[in-house]
Amino acid sequence: MLAINKSLKIDSVSNFQIIDITSEIVAILNEINKDKKIQNGMVNVFTKHSTSAIVINENERGLLNDFEKVLKDMVKEKDNYKHDFIDNNAASHIRAFLLGSSETIPIADGRLDLGTWQSVFFIELDGPRTNRTVDLTFIGE
Ligand code: ZN
After folding, report:
1. Which pLDDT tens digit goes with each residue over 82-140?
2. Ligand 1 center–CA 82 separation, angstroms
3. Is the pTM of this model over 0.85?
4. Distance, CA 58 to ligand 1 centroid (Å)?
5. CATH homologous superfamily for 2-140?
6. Which DSSP string do the residues of the chain spell out, in sequence order?
7. Domain limits, the chain
């Protein structure tokens, strides 16, 4: 059993942004597996920021717009939030609470074992920001 820690650095360009990081994760896994280190196991994808999230879903433009609309309908931008008195980004935190900070994906036969229509997204909820960090922990054999 082996554990390998890697990280991604992400720059966002708008306040709300959905960034598909699947190909970056696959590239790192392929690099690790040049000598077949992790053929079977899993990778945990974890954002280190409380105003961002990691989710898995389908990368279809209309759906991503629907997701943004529902999230913003569910959590109003301003609502006398107490956190706004100290940091002015309560809505960003609350949206992150709902989405979660990590996902774990199986690795099978050396490949990221996502379903056909699944992508891994970093969700920026309080951008634009530079140098957002996403940790990748690969565990397997
Ligand atoms: Zn805050």
Report:
1. 999 999 999 999 999 999 999 999 999 999 999 999 999 999 999 999 999 999 999 99
2. 10
3. yes
4. 29
5. YjbQ-like (2.60.120.460)
6. -EEEEEEEEE---SSSEEEE-HHHHHHHHHHHGGGTS-SSEEEEEEE--TTEEEEEE---HHHHHHHHHHHHHHS-S-S--GGGGTTS-HHHHHHHHHH-SEEEEEEETTEE---TT-EEEEEESS-S-S-EEEEEEEEE-
7. 2-140
